[in-house]
Amino acid sequence: MKRFRYKSIAAVSDRVSVQPRRTPGNTRERQFTSLRTPSCLLWFIPIALLTISTLLFLPVTARAAAPEVIDRIVATVNGRVILQSDWDEALCYEALVNNRALDQFTDDDRRAVLDRLVDQELLREQMKSADFRHATDAEVQARITEARKQYPEAASDEGWHALLASHHIGEKDLFARVRQQIDLMRLVDARLRPTVQIDSKSIEAYYRDQFVPKLKESGAPEVPLADVSAQIRELLTEQKVSEMLVSWLQTLRSEGDVHVPSMSPPSSDPGVQSP
């Protein structure tokens, strides 16, 4: 760059010094006078050129950093947005509930989690007009305490906290999700269970075709129908409620405004947002 600067100074100096002097009124002198450059600017010109050239050759990342994707929309339910982070958190919760590692979930498993998020949002909207008893703090805590017994490593508080941390779930988030699950179950029961009717013939058929054969396969002694009639009725009621729930959700989807764009499932590490 020094060579370029000296050459520029010399070129400008030569251009000024070789001009013949004319009388003040001479047109040629006026033309040459306009070409003269003050000496203080001779050093500024090459420096300015150097600065411009440096800026032009800066890396693109230095001039304009690429925007970072913090979150993204993965579904909308009647105007309510479901974000990628919602999907990731739901995946972590289901991994904990099913005692599975995040990397054990297949793409189909992950998409099923998103479908359940959509269903839950549809049901939450129905809560506004439903009449049922919401879960209390004590009931939520009792459900969590009971669930801890499924995990040997959660016998101590330290082990429990470590288990939650390994699934990227905080205690407050877990509490909120368990409360939501209880409320959704009670909503479904309040809406559908009263319409279910299980007659004695259905109970007898299940006992004959399902219950007794399973007892024989396991080698257990036969149990009279009267002793298990109530349990069979409850089982058949739950099955019927599940069937009706599927139909209800299909109706809510068809009548609502649900959009789930086709996209790749979330990464196995919920701390990393997909671009």
Q: Please, could you describe this protein's structure?
A:
By secondary structure, this protein is mainly alpha-helical. It has helices spanning 2-17, 27-33, 39-42, 44-56, 60-63, 84-97, 107-127, 137-148, 157-166, 171-192, 200-218, 225-255, and strands at residues 73-77, 80-83, 258-259. A three-stranded antiparallel beta sheet has the order 2-1-3. Residues 1-63 and 271-275 have low confidence and may be disordered.
Described by strand count, sense and barrel closure, the largest sheet is: 3 strands, antiparallel
Could you tell me the number of beta strands?
3
- Series of secondary-structure elements, N-terminal to C-terminal: HHHHHEEHHHHHHHE
Estimate the mean pLDDT confidence: 79
Residue runs with pLDDT of under 50 for 5 or more positions? 1-63, 271-275
> What fraction of the residues are assigned to beta strands by DSSP?
under 5%
Radius of gyration: 38 Å
Share of helix, binned: 55-70%
The CATH C-level name of the largest domain is Mainly Alpha
Distance between the termini: 43 Å
Query: What is the number of helices?
Result: 12
Structural class: mainly alpha
